[in-house]
């Protein structure tokens, strides 16, 4: 598993993420597979970073990101009571990053 920090948030890339590249073998050239894999990596990482940094802004602790073959997962624990409005904002932040980037 590949691990690195993203502005203080630990990121893990599960081995299954390589399946993104495997789907292109035989149909695409090496650079197309590499470009596609990099694009998916960046898109999923940015989406999950939206969740991670918003949860941290609302007092989340133990924030971490894991990327898998079909997406990602952000985990965090609340250091104080986080109401439903803030939980909604944390959930919506991933999509908001994608919308604002597009």
Q: What does it look like?
A:
With 102 residues, the chain is of the alpha+beta class. The chain contains three helices and four strands. It has helices at 19-22, 30-57, 84-101, and strands spanning 2-6, 9-13, 60-68, 71-78. The chain has a four-stranded mixed β-sheet with strand order 1-2-3-4, with helices on one face. Strand 3 (60-68) and strand 4 (71-78) form a beta hairpin. The chain is elongated. It starts with a strand and ends with a helix. The model has no long low-confidence stretch (mean pLDDT 91).
Name the shape in a single word: elongated
Structural class, from secondary structure content? Answer: alpha+beta
What percentage of amino acids are in beta strands? Answer: 25-35%
Low-confidence stretches: none
Oligomer: single chain
Amino- and carboxy-terminal Cα gap:
30 Å
Count of individual helical segments: 3
Annotation, overall tally of beta strands:
4
Overall pLDDT score: 91
Order of the strands making up the biggest sheet: 1-2-3-4
* Sheet having the most strands: 4 strands, mixed
Radius of gyration: 15 Å
Helix content: 40-55%
| H/E topology pattern | EEHHEEH
């Amino acid at each position: 598993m590949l691990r690195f920090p993203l502005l203080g948030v630990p990121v893990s890339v599960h081995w299954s993420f390589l399946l993104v590249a495997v789907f292109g073998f035989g149909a695409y050239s090496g650079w197309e597979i590499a470009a596609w894999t990099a694009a998916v990596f960046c898109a999923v990482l940015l989406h999950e970073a939206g969740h991670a940094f918003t949860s941290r802004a609302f007092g989340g602790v133990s924030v971490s990101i894991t990327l898998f073959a079909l997406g990602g997962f952000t985990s965090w624990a609340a250091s104080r009571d986080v109401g439903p409005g803030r939980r909604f904002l944390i959930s919506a932040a991933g999509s908001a990053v994608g919308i604002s980037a597009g």
